[in-house]
Design brief:
alpha+beta
């Protein structure tokens, strides 16, 4: 999902432009294969760090995630699993500290107050930069349109036969940002404990640098989400009948009507639903969460074919999406309040989505991790 493409989608023509140059596409695929070979070559079998060092205090608002070896990706009995979640493969991940909740509006507000940081969604649009990501000759939108904003959700008025056309429920909203999550007339007053949203990748990294943490890898995120459920579909097990009691998701006909069986139509305060075995909240539903891994369509297949285990994998060494070979996207995990069984069911542990670096949406936030090594380094 690319911000600049969305402007064209919703404002100019209603079409997503994609490169048609077959030779360039093939070259991108070849480069992708070479990058994956380098990643596979780094495999090694080791013992992981399970226990937190006794001389390091658990950071406020975080919990220790014990290191483990497990199979990353979809479990065999998950009938909703998508192709890019399979096949699963063996990984070994060292222990680390993770935020108990998604970063909240209150926490992000403190960051902004101390640093004066301005998020991507609040910045003026640069037409010269925008042109680089669009077909040559694309006309410049009217100045009234070239204003800061972000993507907000809108309900459809009637049943949607084509759930692949996401323009039917997303709206480019001028003035939408983390302080105004539903548009310029909305605010976060009284919503301090809600997860911060409209956060682009750059924004998440800036917060991490300020606090001395980093974003989790996809492997770390999945280890943390699984808890003791190493061979289960959801953070709580395999029973989808208890979904409304375990996670904030869309219940009803997506994207037309939400029954709010779980108590919320949009974002909910953190810690509203039960934590998983690791004491983590909202690892399923509420808002999507950024990871540091590049999204690569072929990564799971290439790695799984090698048969060995990956030690602290960082994901693919380069981005590649077979639907858009030139996209630069990261993996986001966990699903959101918009996830529905008929659409993506992305409250499943193995669910993953590709999202461009400049994306900011009202259902995308993040949480952070920190390792003992990072804590020791920050104290120096």
């Amino acid at each position: 999902m690319q911000l600049y493409k969305y402007i064209i989608v919703f404002v100019l023509s209603g079409l997503i432009f994609q490169c048609k140059d077959v030779k360039k596409s093939n070259a991108a695929k070849l480069e992708n294969k070479e990058s994956l070979k380098k990643e596979v070559a780094s495999k090694i079998s080791v013992e992981v760090i399970q226990e937190a060092p006794g001389n390091i205090e658990t950071p406020k608002g975080m919990t220790w995630i014990s290191g483990a070896k497990f199979s990353q990706g979809a479990v065999a009995h998950d009938k909703m699993a998508m192709g890019h979640e399979s096949p699963n493969f063996k990984v070994a991940v060292d222990g680390f500290f993770m935020d108990v909740t998604e970063v909240t509006n209150a926490q992000f507000s403190n960051f902004v107050k101390e640093t004066g940081y301005i998020t991507v969604a609040e910045r003026a649009l640069d037409w010269e930069e925008m042109k680089k990501q669009l077909p040559e000759g694309t006309p410049k939108p009217h100045d009234s349109i070239m204003q800061p904003g972000s993507l907000t959700f809108k309900k459809a008025k009637s049943s949607v036969p084509n759930l692949y056309d996401f323009s039917q429920w997303w709206n480019w909203t001028i003035g939408a940002n983390w302080k105004h999550p539903n548009g310029p007339d909305s605010s976060i007053k009284g919503l301090e404990n809600n997860p911060v949203v409209h956060i682009a990748y750059e924004d998440a990294l800036a917060y991490c640098e300020w606090i001395g943490h980093r974003l989790p890898t996809e492997a770390e995120w999945e280890l943390a989400a699984r808890g003791n459920n190493s061979n289960k579909i959801y953070t709580w097990g395999d029973d989808n009948s208890v979904l409304s009691k375990q996670a904030n998701s869309w219940e009803g006909e997506f994207p037309v009507s939400n029954t709010k069986t779980d108590g919320y139509e949009a974002r909910s305060p953190v810690k509203t639903y039960p934590p998983n075995d690791n004491g983590l909240y909202d690892m399923a539903g509420n808002v999507w969460e950024w990871t540091s891994d590049w999204y690569n369509t072929n990564y799971y297949k290439e790695v799984a074919n090698q048969g060995d285990e990956l030690y602290n994998p960082q994901g693919a060494s380069s981005a590649f999406n077979d639907r858009d070979p030139y996209a630069r996207e990261k993996v986001m995990k966990g699903g959101s309040f918009l996830c529905n069984a008929s659409y993506c069911a992305s409250y499943r542990i193995s669910a993953r989505m590709a999202t461009s670096l400049d994306s900011s949406l009202e259902h995308l936030g993040f949480r952070t991790v920190v390792t003992p090594e990072m804590i020791a380094k920050n104290k120096r």
